Amino acid sequence: MEKKRILVVDDEQDLCEILHFNLTTAGYSVETAYSAEEALEYISATTFDLLLLDVMMPGRSGFQLAEELRRQERQQARTPLPIIFLTAKDTEDDMLEGFAAGADDYIAKPFSVREVLARIKAVLARTGRTTETDSISYEGLSMSQHTKTVTVNGVEVPFTKTEFELLWLMLSNRGKVFSRQELIEGAWPGNVVVTDRTVDVNITRLRKKIGDYAANLVTRQGYGYYFKENTKGV
User: Fold this and answer.
1) Cα separations (Å) of 10 from 14, 48, 199?
2) Residue 132's pLDDT is what?
3) Is the bond preceding 110 in cis, omega lying within 30 degrees of 0?
4) Cβ neighbours of residue 174 under 8 Å, at least 6 residues apart?
5) In 10 A of CB 14, how many CB atoms?
6) Residue 10: what pLDDT?
7) Residue 149 clears pLDDT 80, i.e. is over it
8) Please, how many CA atoms are within 13 Å of residue 111, restricted to the half-sphere of its CB?
9) Exposed, middle or buried: residue 128 (CB in 10 Å: 0-12, 13-18, 19+)?
């Protein structure tokens, strides 16, 4: 079985070395970076399965790096890279800020290596991340990134580019609520002015096109939209 790849990002070199040794011993493939800028270079060149990220670093903070990664993932319709924050900022407000930035888990310093290993195992199991996603499906609803096609119960349905990007974003992140602004950033070119009403119109069209699965595109009042599993027939 191929080893899971983990990127450790912390400006404390001693801590990076400790984590590198223990994670490698536990069977992971590990790289280390000492700044957000260095981490971005690694991520652009290599596929990772999980990011262990410090918050307080010189230059760009861990929160800012996480927000940038999530923005890129939305724009490129990529599967989100799981992120666990490792930080001395352990107040409730700090944790809420971390989760708002896109964290999957949050570990306060000082911590034990056993705790880190347990959290990593849990996040990897929960996210079920794969290194490449060319196609995704939910019951009879399938999408292919390679051919840019959508099939509903075996029948191909024509989609515009925007409709495809919207559905791909939500279907590949099932259960995650996207604000209208996040959907705009993920599905429309950056030089195009898009209103909230335009998003709503496109969601209505999507529901008509996916037929039996229209009920899975759920409106969360005051927040946005998401693709919810197990609502068909409800």
Assistant:
1) 9, 16, 39
2) 46
3) yes
4) 138, 226, 227, 228, 229
5) 8
6) 92
7) yes
8) 22
9) exposed
The 10s digit of each residue's pLDDT in 36-76 is 899 988 888 888 999 998 888 888 888 888 888 888 888 87
Report the 10 Å Cβ neighbour count for 93: 8
User: Could you tell me the two tokens for 15?
Assistant: 């801590």
Q: How much helix, strand and coil, in percent to the nearest 5, is found in the chain?
A: 45, 20, 35
Q: Whole-angstrom Cα distance, residue 101 to residue 103?
A: 6
The burial of 194, by beta-carbon neighbours within 10 Å (0-12 exposed, 13-18 middle, 19 or more buried), is given as middle
Region 219-227: mean pLDDT is 92
Question: What's 217's DSSP letter?
Answer: E
What is the tens place of the pLDDT at every residue in 111-126?
888 888 888 988 887 7
